[in-house]
Amino acid sequence: MNEPAKEEQKDEQLVPEETPLPEKTPAKEKTLAEQAPSSYECRSCGYVYVPSKGDSQGKVPAGTLFTELSPDWRCPVCGVRKTQFVNIGAQGAPSGFAENLDYGLGINRLTPSQKNILIFGALGIGFLFFLSLYGLH
């Protein structure tokens, strides 16, 4: 009777414990808007630093990221320090992925602000058309 119990113990000892494999999370793909350089807005006067334009008054060439500006750079409008600027995200970049830009009748190439104008403009025109139907008496 003791022999089967000994065999079970031996079998349990021979089987290695399974260690859980670390879960791999897929790399998050970034949209074009997330890949584009961020613009920064002055909290004091509302001036927006756009990296693609640079700062001609401060002799900052186009393409210079905000993080690459010298620490003594100041707002060209009101003169506040660089620390008074807040990140407002990318401007003028489509909000989708690069492989999807050719779909959707060209709508996917529009920036978020252009899409807002298109949507709310169409709603406004539709509402005006609806109101014009009351004049058909």
Description:
The chain is of the alpha+beta class. The chain has two domains: 64 residues, Rubrerythrin, domain 2, CATH 2.20.28; 37 residues, no CATH class. Helix content is 28%, strand content 8%. It is built from three helices and three strands, in the order H-H-E-E-E-H. A three-stranded antiparallel β-sheet has the order 2-1-3, with no helix packed on it. The chain starts with a helix and ends in a 5-residue tail after the last helix.
List the total number of helices: 3
Shape: flat
Oligomer: single chain
Query: Could you tell me the strand content as a percent range?
Result: 5-15%
What is the spatial order of strands in the main beta sheet?
A: 2-1-3
Main sheet attributes: strand count, strand direction, barrel closure: 3 strands, antiparallel
- Percent in helix: 25-40%
One letter per element, helices H and strands E, the order comes to: HHEEEH
The CATH class assignment of the largest domain is Mainly Beta
Counting helices, strands and paired strands, the structural category is: alpha+beta
Determine Rg (CA atoms, Å).
30 Å
Examine the secondary-structure arrangement and name the CATH architecture of the largest domain.
Answer: Single Sheet
* Uncertain stretches: none
CATH topology of the largest domain: Rubrerythrin, domain 2
Query: Number of DSSP strands?
Result: 3
> Domains counted in the coordinates: how many?
2
For the termini, the CA-CA separation is 103 Å
Mean pLDDT: 81
